Amino acid sequence: MNYEHFHSIQFPLVVTPTCFRNYGLCPKNCSAGFHCYDGDIQGLLYHLCISDFKSHKLYFYPTSTFALQLPLIAVQELPVKKIILVLSLLEQLKFRLDIKDQHEGRTVFLEACSRLMKRDKQYAAEFPSLVDWFLGNTKFNINERDNEGWTSLHFIMELKHEEFIIPILKKLLQHGADPSIEDYNGFNPLGYAVYRHELRFIQCLIENIPEFQHGDIIKRAISKAGVFSAKRHYLRTWLQPQPKA
């Protein structure tokens, strides 16, 4: 089924009988989750407002403990444009997007960040627009941490498509992300990059992102580098007075 026409949907949506003309024939085992998985906005709206409500299958009701499942399905499976459509609908229906899942302690935003490790280049390229949506439509803490102490900046360091890391980092830092926050193993984002990436990448990070040039952040990153490594030598040069341009 082609869902491209849903990209032009304007919010808020108005629920009318004609919206659901073709959804009365859904299989008995159908649920909001199936339509969310496909990015089917009208089918999702049908189940949330009529079908599941009438049959008392309130698993996805905004105040239930399962309310987080639908937005998590969206950020895990859909392209960014459809994620924004689904989250816009759920936000309109008063779903809480700032609560954390019980397993990993991640909000919808942190889960979206974690998906950068697994999703394709298109997801990474469009991710800044998803950050803009969260900033403009929800109340969330951009420095929130999961059960491992990871923030959005930590997850960005795991992005397999390195060419998108700098633009995403700049977007997050522009809106107040704190590069000095350490996870529960004592790694700040730069320290994790030192542990995880090659020297060329560390150079690219520091030389393009002024926030990573702060002395305390550099010192903590040095503690994660090998004693006689090229990374350690490079980092130490940033503790010396830099020549003025």
TrEMBL record:
Give the UniProt keywords, A-Z: ANK repeat
Give the source's domain of life in one word: Eukaryota
User: Which InterPro entries does the protein's record reference?
Assistant: Ankyrin_rpt (IPR002110), Ankyrin_rpt-contain_sf (IPR036770)
Q: What is this protein called in UniProt?
A: 14679_t:CDS:1
Q: Does the keyword Secreted apply?
A: no
Outline the ANK repeats, range by range. Answer: 148-184
Checking PANTHER family in the record gives:
POTE ANKYRIN DOMAIN, POTE ANKYRIN DOMAIN FAMILY MEMBER 3C-RELATED
Q: Does the keyword Glycosyltransferase apply?
A: no
* Classification via Gene3D superfamilies: Ankyrin repeat-containing domain
Classification via SUPFAM superfamilies: Ankyrin repeat (SSF48403)
